[in-house]
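Work package 3, deliverable 3.1, input record:
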Amino acid sequence: MISSKLATPILSVRDLRKYFILSQGVVKAVDGVDFDVNEGETLALVGESGSGKTTTAHVIMGFYTASGGSVKYKSEEIGYIPIEKRSLKLRKEIQIVFQDPATSLNPKKSVKDILEIAIKTHFPNSSRLERLKLMLDLINFVGLSEDLLFKKPSELGGGEKQLVALARALAPDPQLIILDEPTSALDVSAQARVLRALSKVQRERKNTYLLITHDLSVVRNLATKVAIMYLGKIYEYATTEEFFSNPLHPYTQMLLSSVPTLTEEEEKILPRKIPSSGEIPSPMNPPSGCRFYPRCPFAKEICKIKEPPPIVIKDKEDSFHIVRCWLYIDTQKIP
Amino acid sequence: MFSQESDYTRIDKINSLLEVRDLYVNYRSYWYVYKVLNGVSLSVRKGEKVGILGESGAGKTTLLKSIINILPPSGKIVNGDILYKGKSLIKDKKYLNEIRRRSIGMIFQDPLAALNPVFTIKEHMLDILKHIYKNSNYSKSDLMSMAVELLREVMLPDIERVLNSYPFQLSGGMRQRVVIAMALASARELLLADEPTTNLDVTIQDQILRLIDKLVNERKLSLVLVSHALGLLYRMVNTLYVMYGGEIIEIGSPRDILKDPLHPYTRMLIESAPRITTPKVGEGIRGNPPDYRNPPPGCRFYPRCPFAKEICKIRKPELKKVGETHYVRCHLYE
C-alpha cells in the first residue's frame, strides 16, 4: 500500500493471498495484504479470530506457502519456500515466539537442553563452554535468574516460560522475530515482565518484530505501526501515534470501544462509542463489497457492492495513515 | 486453625444471601497436599454484585467451585463453612442439591470444556431442565419451550439451528451464550461466573459482559464474578475482593481499589496492567504464586513483597478496616 521512503524494508509483503481448499469450499484466510516493515521497527497485525493475522505470520515463517502475491525478506522472495526447504541462514534470521509456552517448550527437557538445541543447530561448531556462556547471557538478558537453567518448563510460571521461549528465539541472533500473541496466555504481572524484556531486546539488539495480537494495549506498548485485519484484508494501516490519536475505520472504533477502561484518561482515548455487534462471518463466505458492512453502523449502499480501495489520509516521513473505507473517499490526499 | 472474627464482623447478617466463613480447601495428589484456600471469608447480600480479582493460581476457581461443591475428587473442604440464606451447604447435602437446582447457576470459563462435544445443544438444555424440574410434571414440550426461551434471553440468533448443533459447530461467542443460558436455568437468585470471557475475542467479550449485566439487572440476581482483569470487574461489580495465594488480601469498592490500592500486591498489579493510554510498561511482579505444598507460614505474599518485614515471615496478618468500605490484610496497616 505504501512504499517506504527509507532504505529497503527488511520485510515487504505485497498482495499476499493464502487460500485453503476444503471439500466445502475455499477459505480465503488471507486475501490481498500489503505492508512493509523496516529494520528495527515493530509492526502489529491486529485482528480477532478469523482475521487472517496468524495465517499471515505462518506464511512468512514458511509453515505455509503463499497462494499468491509476494513476501520479500531483504529483497529475496520467500513466500513460496516452505520452511523445510529454507536455508539454515534464512531460518536463523527469522524466528518465532508462540502464544502458549506450555505447548511450545518441550516439557521433558530442562531449560538448558531447550536452549542448547537452538544454539547447536545454528552454531554447530561451538564448544560446550561457548554454548554455556551464550545460554547464560541469554537467560540474564531476558531477565531470568541462572538457576532456572536446570528446571523443566512445568516448574516455571507462565511469564518465565515465555521468557525462555524468547531466549530460545534469540539464541541464533535473528533479525526478524515474529511474536504470536506473546502475552495473551499470561497474567497481568507476567505480561509486564515479558513486555519489558521485549522492549529491552529491541532497544539493544535493534531487531525487527512482527507482532500478532488482539490486545490493543500491547500494541500501544510495543508497536511503531499498526495494521488492522478483518476477514483476510487490512482495513486500517498507520503509525501507532497516528492510529491512537485518530482511529478512523468503524471496525477499529468498535475494537477500541470494546476495551474495558479504568480511568477517565482511557475513556478520552477511545473514540465515539461504537458498541460491538454481530460476529465475524466465516472466511469461506465473506460478504460482498466491504467485508465489514453487515456489522457496520455507518454502512451505505456502495459498501454492499464495492470493496473500498485503500485511501491515503496521511503520508509523511514519520507518520502515515491509510484506511479502506468509503466514508473517507472525499478526504483522500493525493501523495 | 483459629477463626478470624475480624473477617466476618463486616458481614451483614440480615440481607445475607451467601456467606463463606473461614474456608480452608486442600487438594491431594499421591505424594503431596496442596493447601490452597487458607481461611477465605466472603459475603454476598441480596442484589449485591461481588467481584473476585486475582491471577491464575490464586484460588478463585477453587473458591467458586467450593460454593456449590463441584471440586474435583482431589479437592476437599477441610475447615470452615458456607452458608446460603443462613443454612450450611456443607453440612446439609439435601439443601445443597436443592440450591444447585433452584437457586445458584454457574458460568464456566471455557465453553468448549463446559459443553459435551457429543451432544447437541438441545440435548444439553433438556438434560439440565429435566434435572432441575425432576419433581414437577412438565412434559418434554414444556421443557423445550423453556429451553427456547432461555436461548432467546441470551440473544442467540437462529435458535432452531443452535439447538440442533453440536458445540464445535458454533462460534466461541455463541457457545458462551449457550453456557450462560444453561446457568440461567438454575440461577434464580445467585449467578457465579468464572472468567466468562477469557477465551473470547475482545469485541465479543464486550457483548457477553453487557449480556450478563442485563440479565443480572433484569432478573435481580446477585453476582459473583471472577476475573484477572480489573477493567472488566470495575464496571460490573459493587464490591471487589482481591485474592492472592489462596487468601483474601483486600476488600473494597472498585473505586477504593483503583484509586487507593493498599496492599502491595494490589498496587503492583494495577501498576503492571498494560495501558492503552501510554507506551510505558509497568514493572511486573517478580517471582511466582506460592507453592501450595509448602506455602509461606506468615503472609503468603511475603517472598515477593518489596515492603516485607520480619513479622510478615512469621504471622499471617489480619483483615483490618481502613475505610468505610475498605479492608486490607497486611502488616503495613496494623
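The radius of gyration of chain A is 21 Å.
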